[in-house]
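Quick one:
INPUT:
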């Protein structure tokens, strides 16, 4: 595959999944600039590797996994910045803002599991693959995340 074909594929994927990936990265980093950097790094990896995918779903899953890995690497970095609000263009409606604020208080594994399940529509088996854990663990994180989110939402009312 030549450079221009890789660029065209990456641009199409960027247009298709940029908002979802930025929201996912934001659920990890709680900082828009960091989230955008992680997504950019994921697309750079996409450009370098130019992987062949069986389906659009496997392409999206690959991009999600790489974005998660970039976020985890960033979180281990000592150069973390303060959090910022997620802008409206990334899908934060008035109703979502309260949920997003409450989700910030949750541990990362619960935040990300809830995000993948509710915002991205993944099933537990798929979430387990993305997060490199078992489906039972992903289900536990989802259940505990729901409970913690409910308590956090009640505390903010």
């Amino acid at each position: 595959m030549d450079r221009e074909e890789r660029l065209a594929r990456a641009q199409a994927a960027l247009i298709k999944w940029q908002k979802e990936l930025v929201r996912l990265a934001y659920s990890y980093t709680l900082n828009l600039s960091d989230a955008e950097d992680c997504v950019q790094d994921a697309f750079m990896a996409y450009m370098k590797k130019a992987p062949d995918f069986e389906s659009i779903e496997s392409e999206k899953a690959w991009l999600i996994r790489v974005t998660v890995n970039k976020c985890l690497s960033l979180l281990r970095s000592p150069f973390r910045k303060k959090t910022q609000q997620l802008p409206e263009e990334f899908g934060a409606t008035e109703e979502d803002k309260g949920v997003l604020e409450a989700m910030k208080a949750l541990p990362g594994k619960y935040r990300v599991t809830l995000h993948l399940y509710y915002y991205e529509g993944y099933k537990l088996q798929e979430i387990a693959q993305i997060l490199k854990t078992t489906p039972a663990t992903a289900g536990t994180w989802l259940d505990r995340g729901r409970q913690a989110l409910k308590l956090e939402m009640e505390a903010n009312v």
